[in-house]
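As agreed, record copied across for absentees:
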Amino acid sequence: MFSLKRISFVGIALIMMVMLYGCGNSGQEARDVELPVNPVRIADVSGSTEELLVLGYKPVITGNTDMANSLEITPILKKELPDVTPAGWFQTEVNLEAIIAASPDLILAGPTQEKIYDQLNMIAPTVRVPYGFNAFRERFAFVAEVLDKKAEMEAWLKVYDQRALLLHDQITEITKEETFAVIEATEKEIRIYSRTGIADMIFNDLGLPIAPGTPEPDPWGGKVTSLEALSTFNPDHIILLSDNDQNVLDQSKVWSNLKAVKSNNIYRMTSRQNYNEAFFALGKEALLEQIAEQIKEHIKQ
């Protein structure tokens, strides 16, 4: 996706030259961007703010905003970066005026900002991060390599993966081959997830068995299904994502007859947690512990 090299100049700082290509689109020209070796004021609208914190940076602008309110940063970032300015959700249009006012020395922009890349690059050197919402590890690796922080990234992932493996062993010591499903319920629809977000954490990070009949996902990582289709899908355990109790599963005989529901093997999370936390480094750390603790405490009963 890119090449990176260091160039020395007498009397001035090192400059990293990063050649970035447009987000997998054929026919686009590559562009050279001169980046400061030690950026101080990073404006991140690529969704990488939590990863930047792991790598030792404190962005002044972020696109990691709360699912329920694009004018507010996520709860985790409120604790870690109370003074950071939100630029709007990184998956939609961002606030150029806010970015200009922050006087950044480096901007990280994601695939969604492709149309305004030239405008961003007029404000400050801008790196195209070609990985979006659903590609946590690829996005993290790309940003770490651009900033010459690969060792820090690998150290964090090693700790995270070792913890996930330990939790996997603790859970499956009791559940054995029992299967899991991740289901999101709203007032209007049911979606079964097989990858991305919390589903990615359950099936890839924790390595828990996926329930037979889990449908092939759409680009968001899940598949909208009906109550009737749910009747043929019978996992042993369900992680239920719902922001309130008023959803299509209420008073449903199909739902109440599922094996996991009869056994009370239901672990409740919120859709807000999923989208605010499960796609980013610090959120994944917190959710990993929360999900595993819920499962372990329940199966011990």
